[in-house]
Please model this.
Amino acid sequence: MKKTLLTLSIAAVFAVGASAAEFKAGTYTAKAPGIHGDVTVTVTFTKDKIADVKVTHSETPGIGSKAAELLPDRIVERQSPQVDGVTGATITSTAIRTAVADTVKQAGADPAALVPLAVKKQAKNETVDTDVVVVGGGGAG
Model:
């Protein structure tokens, strides 16, 4: 059987949506119910972005605490409280996102209008040695 050398150029760059939001610069605090009490977030805004998110909580170590560790960076990276939660920490994840959304309102913006920025991924070239290649999307390939 003859082998065909296939070179794929994979451009995995997502469009970056710029948030047109304008905030009242400052630091705002909000709370939402977690598993073991309120989850408090302190969010710092500049005029045009979410600059920092800090979470204070008494959630279960290794479960809810994971959401408190991971979500602040995701929210800043995506410039939106509309980020994926942490599996197994749904209530804590929801509390963090809800409290951040409340601070967005305090800062004068609509949380629903903050479209999460997509993460840029670098294009890469990959060479694959294969007998069969199916190119396409959906159920048929």
